[in-house]
Amino acid sequence: MRMPVFSRTKRWLALLGCVLLSSILLSACGDEASTSILNTAGPVAADEKVLFYVVVILAAVIFLGVEGWLVYSIFRFRERPNTPTPYQNHGNLFLEALWTGIPTVVLFILLFFTIRGLLQVAPEAQPKDANTVSVVAVGHQWWWEFYYPKYNITTADELVIPAHTTIHVDLFSNNVIHSFWVPNLTGKTDLIPGHDNTKWFIADKNGTYTGLCAEFCGTQHGNMRFDVKAVNTDSFQSWISTQQQTAAAPGDSLAQQGQAIFKNQCSTCHGIVGVDVTQFYNPQQFCNDSLGPGHNYPTTDVHCLIGPNLTHFGSRGLIAGGVLTNNSQACNPTDPNIMKDCHLAQWLNDPQGIKPGNDMNIGQLTTGQIRQLVAYLEGLK
Q: I need a labelling partner for 243 at 20 to 30 A (CA). Which of 123, 157, 229, 281 fits?
């Protein structure tokens, strides 16, 4: 009589274990295409996707081969009544050479595709394109700042780029290590204080792609995202022209009162061109603590701003590193439900409650002051 391989209890435990492991695996699945490395929209991400598939396929083949042989051996060579002692093949040179040769071949395959991938996405591989757009990406705690040296403009949490154009990014941090990652367009590159990195990528089609900080940088690391908006060339040039303008003058008394509040309570940390600063400045140059305070400041109104430049705040889609969206359509200053519906009003009312530990320390504002600030800031298109 054959001995049972598993008892009934063990079979149920094994089945339960498989279900639990499957649930853990499938919990990582989702339909969020904007953060999937498999939904590529540019050559850099596509090259990294190839390496991903090579690793997955090799790992799957090895896993299925090893586990398949193990399962076969368990059934084929399991102990039976009166089974003789198995033959010992210790010292078999052929098997030992096989066990050594197969992993060596696999590792060389991985090495080849890894080096190939590194060379394809390295800074030195950046295409020589006269239309290349250069951007300085600055990681703050916890939001992103983007400065365009050629156009002398600054924005926050929203990187607007022309599609089908090489984007060169200089990565800079003066606080802690961050990591720039746009899953659909490019892989992760660290921003290391004192060691600036560079990267490049191209968006093959128009669209909005989610960017993330992929290095734990503090308590609000999870609320440090940004949008990459790829548009056609004409739309990009139109956006640049708009961003180069000074801030729009407040159009009504409510917005004028909001501007006065900004000057009195917000200008220490935020800049608005035409209000408290005269122009945009390169944060990589003016926020480098290692150079010492006041290094090479061209005018007296320049300082390393703690918060984002708000010159065109009303045109942006995110607030405070993406912890809130800028739902300007729900921000009518005269709406009695503004504190409930308008995300900007909620942020101004309780920034520490929404994003604990951030640098926003505006003090307690009245509902009237919040309405005035909303009227002013949402008008900065």
A: 123
Q: Considering the entire predicted model, what is its pTM? A: 0.83
The two tokens of residue 45 are 């991400």
CATH class of 253-377: mainly alpha
Copy the structure tokens of residue 374: 């909303």
Helix (H, G, I), strand (E, B) or coil at 266: helix
Distance in angstroms (rounded) separating the CA atoms of residues 141 and 158: 16
Domain ranges for the chain: 30-125, 253-377
Cα separation, 344 vs 2, in Å, equals: 73
* 116-165 pLDDT tens trace: 999 999 999 999 988 999 999 999 989 999 999 999 999 999 999 999 99
Helix (H) or strand (E) holding 230: strand 225-231
pLDDT of residue 292: 41
373 membership: H or E segment, kind and range: helix 367-377
3-class SS of residue 194 = coil
Determine the topology of domain 30-125 in CATH: Helix Hairpins (1.10.287)
Q: How far apart, in whole angstroms, are the C-alpha atoms of residue 348 and residue 365?
A: 8
Residue 254: which of 374, 102, 114, 108 has the closest Cα?
A: 374
